[in-house]
Amino acid sequence: MPSTMTYNSLVSDIENYTERTDTTFVNQIPRFIMMGEWRIATDLKGLGYLQVEQSSFTAGNPIVQKPSFWRESVSFSYNTGSAIVPLLPRTYEYARNYWPQVTGTAPPRFYSELDWNTWFITPTPDQNYSFEVLSYVRVQPLDSSSQTSWLTINAPQLLLYACMLEAELFLKNYEKAASYEMQYKNALSSLNREDLRRPKDRSAIVLNEP
User: Fold this and answer.
1) Rounded to whole angstroms, how far apart are CA atoms 143 and 130?
2) N or C: where does the chain have the smaller number of CB atoms within 10 Å of the terminal CB?
3) Three-state secondary structure along the chain?
4) CA pair distance 109, 177, nearest whole angstrom
5) Max CA-CA distance within the chain?
6) Rounded CA gap, 35 and 81, in Å?
7) How far apart are CA 121 and CA 178, in angstroms?
8) What sign for the dihedral angle of Cα 29, 30, 32, 36?
9) What is residue 138's predicted lDDT score, i.e. its pLDDT?
10) What is the reported pLDDT for 50?
């Protein structure tokens, strides 16, 4: 059976690649992994980071909670029972100006980023419509109780290079860090090219105007 990267094997790889097992270094490895995961979440926009969230509006409430580990909104739509209606992305200022009386309700038309954790829906929903939102998210972080993730299964080389880059920066081995950064960028470019070859067209959500 082919070997699969796990959190424990990644920790072991970092120790072996750096040839460091001293306590000060080993205690930092979870941080290297966390920083590597964040680096990838910022740089990689592919299917592995897309998540579909399905829920329902609460009539009279314009605030909707974002999913855990949210990074970027892609599309938002709701079901009237007879049609799927796409919500158009707008700034929060536009949304408040369009619908200043938040207590008034109507079928929604727009969504905006209220803050890192919530969306603001305009007009305020008049019914408990079911909705579906597509977002880029950070994958479940690795630790001793979460041994695998989308990255360990589908992009182990990218994760290893990202973690080794953080480790070598910590060790102030800047030449090695530069080498791992190059390998990281090459692996990232390959994954992004794979995603670009997949057919997709979300332009209708962006181009429609009120």
Assistant:
1) 34
2) N
3) CCCCCCHHHHHHHHHHHHCCCCHHHHCCHHHHHHHHHHHHHHHCCCHHHEEEEEEECCCCCCEEECCCCEEEEEEEEEECCCCEEEEEECCHHHHHHHCCCCCCEECCCEEEECCCCEEEEECEECCCCEEEEEEEECCCCCECCECCCHHHHHCHHHHHHHHHHHHHHHCCCHHHHHHHHHHHHHHHHHHHHHHHCCCCCCHHHHHCCC
4) 48
5) 64
6) 44
7) 44
8) positive
9) 86
10) 87
Query: Using one digit for the tens of pLDDT, what is the confidence trace for 69-102?
Result: 898 999 999 999 999 999 999 999 999 999 998 8
- Report the Cα 179 to chain-centroid distance in Å: 26
Of 134, 124, 137, which Cα lies nearest the Cα of 57?
Answer: 124
Q: Are 158 and 188 in contact (CB under 8 A)?
A: yes
- Residue 80 one-letter amino acid: T
59 backbone dihedrals φ, ψ, rounded to 5°:
-55, 130
* Cβ proximity of 87 and 113 under 8 Å: no
How many residues does this entry show for the chain? 210
Q: For the chain, how big is the Rg over CA atoms in Å?
A: 21
Q: Estimate the crossing angle of helix 156-170 against helix 174-196, to 10 degrees.
A: 160
Q: Taking Cα atoms as reference points, which of 164, 158, 188, 173 lies closest to residue 29?
A: 164
Question: Structural domain boundaries of the chain?
Answer: 7-46+148-196, 49-137
Tokens at 108, concatenated: 């929604």
For 68, counting Cβ atoms within 10 Å of its Cβ (0-12 exposed, 13-18 middle, 19+ buried), the class is exposed
The confidence band for 34, taking pLDDT boundaries of 50, 70 and 90, is: very high
